[in-house]
Amino acid sequence: MILRHAFTPADNARLAHLCGPLDENLRAIESALGVRIAHRHEQFRIDGAAAPARATLALLQRLYAGADRPLEAEALQHALRERDDQGRAAGAAAPAVLLHTRRTDLAARSPNQLRYLQGMLTHDISFGIGPAGTGKTFLAVACAVDALERNTVQRIVLTRPAVEAGERLGFLPGDMAQKVDPYLRPLYDALYDLMGLERVTRAFDKGLLEVAPLAFMRGRTLNHAFVILDEAQNTTSEQMKMFLTRIGFGSRCVVTGDTSQIDLPKGRTSGLVEAQAVLAGVEGVAFTQFDAADVVRHPLVARIVEAYDAARRADA
User: Fold this and answer.
1) C-alpha span between 54 and 59 (Å, rounded)
2) For residue 211, is pLDDT > 70?
3) Bridge-partner residues for 156, per DSSP?
4) Alpha-carbon dihedral sign for residues 141, 143, 145, 147
5) Nearest one of 25, 231, 314, 137 to 306, comparing CA atoms
6) What is the per-residue pLDDT across 225-245, written as a single tens digit (0 to 9) for each?
């Protein structure tokens, strides 16, 4: 099937933003939808099967309408995920979850992300488990910032186990916060994106944000706090139980991790793996399992995750 379309009145800036440098955006759309796109100025020709060709035309029209500035690769991948007219990528349902952060465009980008957001908003303890790039940590921090903005919690507590990814880094200089900072960098990055550097700095000064090494959590009771345990696949069974029993009144807890990247010594059971089995079906606890289809980073990341999953299944 061949479809022809002309964008009129022609806007050269929008056309350039739509096509991208050396037409790289068009090449990405071709690869994703299995069509061929040719254009001369505002005249576009789409060659492919009927359904993909129509989907491509609808996508080009939508992207052109919003192309008042260069189209970022992330935005293009997001648009490709939403191309299914039946809402397979949850594009229509996601805005129902509105979070108060600096990012006005924050929304779920897959059904599992939407399920994860809903779980965090409706359950006292939520688990997000899956591969890198699926938004587990970022969305958890977004919900924490939202809860702080709405005054439903009094502070945000960030923690993770201090386990190196197969390397021995030795003793780090500085006080306790400085020693644990490198391990919590992904959480800081999300905070800076969602709140801005100045607000994050002020929140730390006021005690609204706290860094708490997991090893020092024993004996505490965390009331009216939004607590995030990141990289939980590297907790031991004892650490996971200790952490989950710190939750007090008016608090929310989110646990994130990737059970395919466990850095514990051989023979040690991951607390996250055990928690999946022990807490399944417990009232008040929500689990969301992500997979390669939920990866929102560079599309190559999803293919890498799929390749490793396939290799693991072959070895099993």
Assistant:
1) 9
2) yes
3) 209, 226
4) negative
5) 314
6) 999 999 999 999 999 999 999
- With tokens 């030795």, the residue in question is 170
Burial, 294: exposed, middle or buried (Cβ in 10 Å; 0-12, 13-18, 19+)?
buried
Rounded to whole angstroms, how far apart are CA atoms 43 and 40? Answer: 5
Q: Report in angstroms the alpha-carbon separations of 265 from 18, 165, 170.
A: 49, 11, 17
pLDDT of residue 73: 76
Tokens of 285: 């606890």
**Lowest pLDDT segment from 10-14, 76-80, 298-302:** 298-302
What is the rounded distance in angstroms from the CA atom of residue 252 to the CA atom of residue 126?
Answer: 8
CA angle 66, 72, 78 (to 5 degrees): 75
Among 92, 191, 108, CA closest to 149? 191
Sheet with 209-211, side-by-side order of all strands:
209-211, 155-159, 225-229, 252-257, 125-129, 285-289
CA end-to-end span of the chain, whole Å?
Answer: 44
| Distance from C-alpha of 186 to C-alpha of 153, rounded to nearest angstrom | 22
